[in-house]
């Protein structure tokens, strides 16, 4: 323990010993953080995992220590840096982000944007060796002027009125600033495409759980997903080896929105776009709808990222293309439907 | 690569509950935490085998894992996605690949939303209407697209219309088709005109029909088209791609043929008295593109297109609010309403010139040299202007050639 403590003060000079890696993961109760912890627990190259969240993960922990830290508190950075220094953490995975937009925008801002600042301050103070940030390809924003495949160098346009997207973009900007100031730290940003899969719960699976989905008349953008297992794989890969920079984590293949709806057996509800925005605003304000109106842009314009950099540099190979991700999601939907109808019959 | 997948397979997954607790119907909102009970069937195969990439149709012995149809009365197969995929692929190998999507769609309908029995149909009027509506609304979907959104089935459906325009309406006469390479990348550079850009579609059709290798040309289309409902989707599905460096580079690196119109909006917005005077070729982006991707430039001249909508003047102050660059004023538009958008049946000549091998002469480093790029861009422009002028001098009539 003492040896590790000493070495943590000069992380760049330390020789790389895989046997004593200590990883801290925020958002341990959420899907990405939790799944990553399960994989790290399995891997004997990792010595210890710190699970940081406000709720303890529901699965059994063997080499994982749970630390309760609320990132929205102003003292979070001091608390975190104390933990990081004490445990000699060398890799920090920041995956504490909202998986779906919330009406409580003030809290979301405190949590995602300011929370990331706290985390980065703590990491800078503890001089960790590697920092991994979970971001999303929605930070590029959906726009008619997007190229068909956005590379990592594209501008993070975000969305002028979306807290959910802008907070993530802000977290990215803070991380970029952190990377500039801390040259010794390897900073990896993983921008995942919308994650789809049988177990994850986020705004995508919630959207596609409905029997009917709105479409904007005359618009049929190409869409892209990444399977939940592939997304977690990318995090594991990034914590196993060092890759500096931003990477788009996307599944293979794109499909038009109409095809996705047809594959899923949804009923499309075509709405003219000039009606859809005010309507969605009203439904969002009255809390009938769970996506803010600016998410309609993603049903209207392209937001597809190019995953070739992750493929070439990280060696990331998604095991699911878009079709098998949808089928995997549907398989469980079918199973759930069967159980529900059996319940109904009994 | 595969070992992290095996290591990563989750050992903490709880054993499948004997009796799963009441699951919510799929439409209900679930709490955001990952629920474990939904995957009540554990993976039967070892993880490495179960998650291996989708097998090739040719190498997979057909009928090796003859799974019962999920919709039949058999117990459900252990993994829907995997089994279904396999079955679909078997079926697709028999019936041709495009049908795969239809199979998935049918499977989903039978599995998740089974058709009510015929006797019950009267008792479920809304359910019935709901299904009818879905069938009607889904008619516009596309089955299979490439990564830029081209839908070959849709393109085949609208091809008769384009053929009519090409053969009967504009009576396009094609020369120099042999200059288009049979394999490998190439950048077709053409003059742009005609208010409504038919020239891209005509070049696409000409090469597809009359070239020996029937190659697909991907025309790069102006941005403003993609602001519009229907129009952007239509152009995307028949093969148009939004004009930007990234898209063009990606297409050329895939060894495709790309058609660019460097005049851009200035080209299609030419007034009638400016016809066949080629405008400035942007900032030479197409030269940089050709040099960087090592593609030969094939100049193309379109004669006849500049008279289809004789534009007398244009109104731009009103157009800005609609999102288009200008509103054309022609002898027929907007006076005759939508009828004014019918183009004049002029006689068209389409000519491809000899490829200009700038890429072998200057190499990728030439793209950094602004003066060189500008000079080459001007060379291409004057070459196309020459071709246009030469053809114009031989033309006797606008309508009959």
Task: Describe what this molecule looks like in 3D.
The complex is a heterodimer of chains A (346) and B (401). Chain A is α/β, with parallel strands linked by helices and 346 residues long. Chain A is 41% helix and 17% strand. In chain A, α3 (76-87) runs parallel beside α4 and α4 (105-126) packs parallel to α5 (163-181). Chain A is globular, with a radius of gyration of 21 Å. Mean pLDDT of chain A is 88; it is low at 1-15. Chain B is α/β, with parallel strands linked by helices and 401 residues long. Helices cover 37% and strands 9% of the residues of chain B. Chain B has a 7-stranded mixed β-sheet, with helices on both faces. Chain B has a two-stranded antiparallel ribbon with strand order 7-8. In chain B, α8 (231-238) links the parallel β3 (217-221) and β4 (241-242). In chain B, α3 (80-95) crosses α4, α6 (152-169) packs across α7 and α11 packs across α14. Chain B is globular, with a radius of gyration of 28 Å.
Q: How many H/I helical runs of chain A?
A: 11
Radius of gyration of chain A: 21 Å
Main sheet specs of chain A:
7 strands, parallel
Largest interface by Cβ-Cβ < 8 Å: A-B, 82 and 79 residues
CA(first)-CA(last) distance of chain B:
63 Å
The helix/strand class of chain A is alpha/beta
Mean pLDDT of chain A: 88
The amount of beta strand of chain A, in percent, is 15-25%
């Amino acid at each position: 323990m003492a040896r590790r403590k000493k070495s943590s003060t000069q992380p760049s000079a330390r020789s790389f010993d895989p046997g004593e890696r200590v990883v801290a993961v925020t958002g341990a109760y959420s899907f990405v953080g939790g799944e990553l912890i399960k994989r790290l627990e399995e891997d004997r190259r990792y010595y210890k995992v710190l699970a940081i969240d406000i709720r303890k993960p529901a699965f059994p922990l063997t080499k994982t220590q749970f630390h309760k830290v609320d990132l929205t508190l102003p003292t979070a950075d001091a608390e975190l840096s104390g933990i990081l220094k004490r445990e000699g953490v060398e890799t920090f995975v920041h995956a504490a982000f909202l998986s779906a937009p919330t009406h409580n925008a003030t809290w979301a801002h405190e949590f995602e944007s300011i929370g990331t600042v706290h985390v980065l301050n703590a990491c800078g103070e503890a001089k960790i060796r590697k920092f991994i940030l979970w971001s999303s390809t929605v930070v590029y924003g959906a726009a008619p002027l997007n190229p068909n495949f956005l590379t990592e160098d594209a501008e993070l346009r975000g969305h002028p009125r979306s807290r959910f997207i802008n907070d993530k973009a802000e977290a990215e900007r803070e991380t970029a600033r952190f990377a500039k100031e801390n040259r010794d730290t390897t900073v990896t940003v993983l921008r995942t495409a919308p994650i789809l899969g049988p177990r994850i719960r986020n705004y995508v699976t919630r959207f596609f759980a409905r029997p009917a989905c709105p479409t904007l008349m005359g618009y049929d953008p190409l869409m892209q997903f990444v399977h939940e297992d592939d997304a977690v794989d990318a995090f594991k890969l990034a914590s196993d080896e060092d890759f500096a920079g931003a990477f788009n984590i996307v599944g293979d293949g794109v499909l038009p929105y109409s095809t996705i709806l047809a594959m899923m057996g949804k009923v499309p509800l075509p709405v003219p776009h000039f009606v859809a925005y005010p309507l969605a605003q009203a439904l969002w304000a009255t809390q009938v709808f769970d996506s803010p109106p600016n998410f309609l842009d993603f049903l209207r314009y392209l937001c597809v990222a190019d995953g070739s950099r992750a493929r070439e540099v990280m060696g990331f190979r998604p095991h699911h293309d878009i079709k098998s991700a949808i089928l995997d999601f549907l398989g469980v939907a079918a199973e759930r439907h069967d159980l529900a109808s059996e319940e109904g019959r009994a | 690569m595969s070992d992290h997948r095996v290591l990563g397979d989750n050992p903490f997954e709880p054993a499948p509950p004997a009796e799963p607790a009441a699951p919510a119907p799929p439409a209900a909102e679930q709490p955001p935490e990952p629920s474990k009970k939904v995957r009540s069937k554990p993976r039967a195969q070892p993880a490495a085998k179960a998650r291996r990439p989708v097998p090739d149709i040719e190498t997979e012995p057909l009928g090796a894992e003859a799974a019962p149809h999920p919709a039949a009365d058999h117990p459900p197969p252990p993994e829907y996605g995997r089994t279904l995929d396999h079955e679909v692929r078997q079926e697709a190998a028999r019936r041709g690949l495009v049908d795969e999507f239809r199979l998935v769609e049918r499977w989903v309908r039978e599995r998740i939303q089974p058709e009510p029995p015929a006797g019950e149909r009267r008792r479920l009027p809304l359910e019935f209407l709901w299904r009818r509506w879905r069938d009607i609304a889904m008619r516009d979907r596309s089955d299979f697209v490439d990564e830029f959104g081209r839908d070959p089935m849709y393109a085949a459906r609208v091809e008769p219309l384009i053929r009519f325009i090409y053969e009967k309406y504009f009576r396009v006469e094609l020369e120099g088709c042999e200059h288009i390479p049979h394999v490998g990348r190439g950048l077709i550079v053409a003059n742009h005109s005609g208010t409504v850009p038919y020239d891209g579609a005509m070049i696409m059709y000409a090469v597809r029909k009359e070239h020996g290798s029937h190659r697909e040309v991907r025309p790069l289309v102006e941005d403003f088209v993609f602001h519009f409902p229907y129009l952007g989707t239509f152009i995307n599905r028949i093969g148009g791609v939004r004009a930007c460096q990234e898209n063009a580079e990606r297409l050329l690196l895939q060894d495709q043929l790309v058609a660019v119109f460097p005049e851009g909006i200035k080209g299609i917005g030419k007034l009638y008295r400016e016809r066949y005077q080629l405008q400035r070729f942007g900032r030479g982006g197409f030269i940089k593109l050709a040099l960087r991707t090592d593609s030969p430039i094939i100049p193309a001249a379109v004669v006849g297109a500049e008279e289809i909508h004789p534009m007398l003047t244009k109104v731009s102050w009103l157009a800005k609010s609609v999102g288009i660059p200008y509103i054309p004023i022609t002898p027929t538009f907007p006076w005759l309403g939508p009828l004014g958008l019918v183009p004049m049946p002029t006689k068209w000549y389409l000519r491809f010139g000899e490829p200009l091998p700038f890429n072998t002469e200057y190499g990728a480093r030439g793209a950094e040299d602004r003066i060189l790029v500008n000079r080459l861009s001007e060379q291409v422009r004057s070459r196309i202007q020459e071709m246009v002028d030469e053809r114009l001098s031989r033309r006797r009539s606008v309508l009959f050639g």
